[in-house]
Write the structure tokens for this entry.
Amino acid sequence: MMEDKSELPSGWANATIGELVLSSGIFIDGDWVESKDQDPDGDVRLIQLADIGDGTFHDKSSRFLTTEKAKALNCTFLEKGDILIARMPDPLGRCCIFPLSGDRNFVTVVDVCAVRLSSTSVSSKYLSYLINSPQVRSDIGALQSGSTRKRISRGNLATIRMPIAPRPEQDRIVAKIEVLFSELDKGIENLETAQEQLNVYRQAVLKHAFEGKHTAQWREDHKHKLESGDQLVARINKEREARQQQQLADWKAAIKKWEAKGQKTGKKPSKPRAPKPVQSISANEMNALPELPAGWAYVRLGNVIDEPAYGTSKRCDYDIDGIGVLRIPNVVKGVIDPTDLKFAQFDADEIEAYTLHAGDILTIRSNGSLSLVGRCALISSKNEQYLYAGYLIRLRPNHTVIDPTYLMAVLSSHFLRGQIEGKAKSTSGVNNINSGEIQHLIVPLCIKAEQQHLMERVARILSSIDATEAEIETQLERSEALRRLILKLAFRGQLVAQDPKDEPASVLLERIKAEKAEQNKDNKNNKRKDAA
């Protein structure tokens, strides 16, 4: 919890939010506004949790209700300068100062707490920075409740005692924080710009890769071994048929072994499903595609992979003693991150159906965020122990015609992202791409030897980009750590000098208490006059 009063800097005092707010101010939860109360043509905007940033107002929401409805619900209207505190993550207890102006134009939801000091004895900016400090954030975390979605009640928030500096020192602290944060923000802006430039560079590398520009010399050196684009397509189709026949032959062999054991050992092997026909690329589609070099061709993705397979719909959880199940959170930056893993129990048939092999690719098929749909991860040998969940689709490349790392890179390119987002975009709020649409995607292809040479070159370039991105991420993390340190020092009294001439905070708090008592007295007198 926060330091005891004895640990406070000279002239400081502890106080709760309620002790700082005059009777003419507010310290309340937002209003209970249901969907049925809202009106898109209303003139009162409903400020939501998404608007509340960690020290910044995000201005994201677009929900409204009419003035009449707001009055009927007895809503509290926000004013510019109010402090808004999010009672739910993430992070829990983050707050910002409300920056918008308007007479009775804004209300907020019940999970946002609104504070209006109505006193010049405490700086709203000081209090806002203080609530966002590591010290107070730690106290909020200690008082959180809820099993699934954590929250802090206003009652618990009201018990937290916070260090209040003398009024002039409050202004010095705020001024120093804003200078330091401004410098930090400039540095962060430069780092984020560098991130964007690296992403542009990454996509340029991939674009040139799949236009054959990185392997022009290789093709010149191996031109006697190259086949034409038409020959490549014909061979791919032949290889697809051969793969199907091989799978069928393997099944027949498995059936014979099962029958030889008297049909009593294990379940009868399942016959492989015949893949659905893959539509050829039309002339109109071809005309709209970028030109490829000699020896390259465009093919449907379905021609170079097995039939895509959906994951399990079985319920999985953290505390089940079973097999790890990969989900959307495990698909991170092209690889599997098993940190956040859930488990479920499966029988032998289910394990066979949802097993993964090195070289498989898992892709996200459904999500509220369009940018996540089609995001992929390449399965390595260390991931083969896991199965996968229903919001993922397994793509199994035909290794005789396409290298898995090549396919993974193609799926990460803007060329494929445009196709995926065009198919997945939805107006219902949930974006989805199905297995048929995945097979219908168009990919640029060359012979496997060129693919492998290309990926060696691309891997070296992308490795350098990855290293730079990692360094930028480290610098961004350090910037956020420095931001927290600045706030921590500020409210320990170590950021600016104390001035013994400043009026002590204890006197300030007594004045607020007296002002509140006087306001309460006036309110009672006014009520008596109204009743007379």
